[in-house]
Amino acid sequence: MTAFALSARHESWPLEQPFTISRGTKTHADVVVVTLEKDGVTGHGECVPYPRYGETVTQVLEALSRCGGGNINFDGIAAMDLPYAARNALDCALWDWTSKAQNAPAWTLAGIAEPQPLTTAFTISLADADVMAQAAAAARRPLLKLKLGKPGDDLRLAAIRDAVPDARLIVDANEGWSAGVLPSMLRACRDAKVELVEQPLPAGADEALQGISRDCLICADESAHGLESLDAVSARYDAINIKLDKTGGLTPALALAEAAQQRGLVIMVGCMVGTSLSMAPATLVGQMAKVVDLDGPLLLRKDREPGIHFEGSLMYPPPRALWG
Which residues contact 188 (CB under 8 A, 6 or more apart)? Predict the structure, then answer.
């Protein structure tokens, strides 16, 4: 059997505006693109190494350079000694290569129905209350994701709800709240008619969620990775945010989504800030999700071409010239 030729490169994509969460601010999306080539067919995958999980662009590139190509297969990627982001790019590149080699859309290989357009959340970066309220109003989006996690979040919520009385709201605290402020912040979310709160407490310190009264879904993000995290997530959360950079690719992400549904968890599909090549595989998980947060390309100054077509917040299935 012919071996794959594997290459990986770093790309940096400027953001339209600085992107701020409780942990800091970024101005570029730094991604790693993996290319697999064999028998005249080329597949591509993209990942976003995330320092919160101890992964960097340099680390991912070095790990991929050591693994080489060889007889890469879906079952073997999970066993490779690679950062999860690297596994993601490699797994998604293999999906793309297989789709092209077999001349079959990726969704047929995954055994799911033909993908339909998805409505994605649009993220409002963390800032002062008036700035966030103005940004929410200017966005004119049906579903907004609010980055919170700093003192004054109750004022931010009230100001944003006043500015966009009809928009659906979800919140991401990025581990920024404490158990002490949690009850009051959940009441503020109730008053603002927030539908879902993502990762309110630090991962590893989220025991306070177990049994707490809530008026909206509480979703695990930093506390949720692969199948091994489901026991803890099921005991404390109502929903799980599945990101391919955390699971290590589309293959484990689909398995995680199915297992999470069997446990009664609501599925959210999310992303790091990347290009349409990062979002494309995640749209397959999005077909199983109640909440879709794949707005990475909308935050870029310019996306790759061809990219996913957006009409406002409606994202269409990726063109096969991009992926899958």
Answer: 153, 154, 157, 158
The residue among 125, 225, 237, 146 whose CA lies nearest residue 193 is: 146
Set 243, 246, 290, 302: catalytic member: 243
Cα separation, 221 vs 262, whole angstroms: 18
pTM exceeding 0.70: yes
Are 247 and 225 in contact by the 8 Å Cβ rule? The answer is: yes
pLDDT tens for 63-98 read 999 987 677 899 999 999 999 999 999 999 999 999
Enter the tokens of residue 261.
């549904």
Q: Which residue, 108, 75, 116, is CA-closest to 94?
A: 75
Task: Give 193-217 pLDDT, tens digit per residue.
Answer: 999 999 999 998 999 998 888 899 9
- Asked if 193 is an active-site residue, the reply is no
Q: Is 302 a catalytic residue?
A: no
> What are the two backbone dihedrals, phi and then psi, of residue 221, each rounded to the nearest 5 degrees?
-125, -80
- SS3 (DSSP) at 310: strand
CB contact set of 219 (below 8 Å; sequence gap of 6+) = 196, 197, 198, 199, 237, 238, 239, 240, 241, 266, 268, 291
Name the DSSP letter for residue 4.
Answer: B
Terminal alpha carbon distance of the chain? 23
- Tokens for 8, please give them: 């990986």
Which residue of the set 38, 100, 147, 246 is catalytic? 147
List the one residue out of 103, 160, 109, 155 whose CA is nearest residue 132: 160
Residue 76 neighbours by CB distance under 10 Å: 12
